[in-house]
Amino acid sequence: MLAQAIKDFPKQFAFKPTIENKGGLKSAAKFVVCGMGGSNHATDVLKAWKPELDIVVHRDYGLPVLSDLNNRLIIICSYSGNTEETIDAFNTAKENNLSVAVIAKGGKLIDLAKEHNVPYIVLPDTGIQPRSAIGFMFMSLMKLMGDEADLQKSSALASILKPDRTEGTGRALAKKLTGRVPVIYSSSRNFAVANNWKVKFTENTKIPAFMNVLPELNHHEMNGFSAQGGSLPDGWRGASGGDVSTRRMLLEKFHFIFLRDDEDNPRVIKRMAVLQKMYADRGLPVEVVNLSGQSRLEKIFTSLLLADWTSLALAEIYGIDPEPVPMVEEFKKLIV
């Protein structure tokens, strides 16, 4: 099912969202988008593509504390329509007489939108997981924001994206990652891409995965990997008497993926190259993945397709069903 969802992903950009209760939609230049997990990945990508947009991403109960909430359109995103935090955000918005709109495939949120005569978009129910519906969400967000020009630009991805072109690379990368914990690095401007890679590993492959961004990680995180290689003498002992080799053992399971983008700040590109060499010199496995495409959007979504294939192939290697998220479902039952 996931393999087919990956192959069909470009079709999501042919989706033409319809706004119900459109008469109640507020025209706004500022937005708060409330969503959890995979239902908010599209918002991160939209911010990465259009950083000039005034969008506050909210991943919590209620609403963010902002002095200009009254001037913003509150968009509630939940693929299922039943996410607890987003329902609370909707209720908080209505209690405070704020302008609100809903994106969901059904569930309680659509019921609430109908009950309160709130604008809403119903997503196609194709049986895919929320994390795989990023295209549907992306198109719906732009529709509610009134961005018809960029909506048309994005629809071109339906014919531009070619999932089959990244499958082989993804499967080859999965073999290298077998038995290791992926750590994904990118520039700050590609945070959304790196975070999506991480989530694909944790949800599809059910393994730990971590991400961070440059230049921030150059000021702390990389120091955690200094025990590998010759930067410290083999016989060095800490105050507790532990040999540095014990610390090196902690690093044996990590495999680093550097997401390189030619359009990044030149200083960030240099930092990434230097860090890559420093890690390699310390015996840490590093894979450089170049973001490729004719446009910013194509680069982003092509990389996300590669993340899909890599995480799926790794799940197959481990004999894991990539679709369900049993720990999430167990947790939901325990907090009722």
Automatic annotation (TrEMBL):
Domain of life assignment: Bacteria
InterPro entries in the cross-refs: Glu6P/Mann6P_isomerase_C (IPR019490), SIS_dom (IPR001347), SIS_dom_sf (IPR046348)
Gene3D superfamilies: Glucose-6-phosphate isomerase like protein, domain 1
Family the UniProt entry places it in: Belongs to the PGI/PMI family.
GO biological process: carbohydrate derivative metabolic process; carbohydrate metabolic process
SIS domain: residues covered: 21-163
Keywords associated with the record: Isomerase
GO molecular function: carbohydrate derivative binding; glucose-6-phosphate isomerase activity; mannose-6-phosphate isomerase activity
CDD domains reported in the protein's UniProt record: SIS_PGI_PMI_2 (cd05637)
Ranges in a coiled coil: none
Protein name in UniProt: SIS domain-containing protein
One Pfam family in the UniProt entry: bact-PGI_C
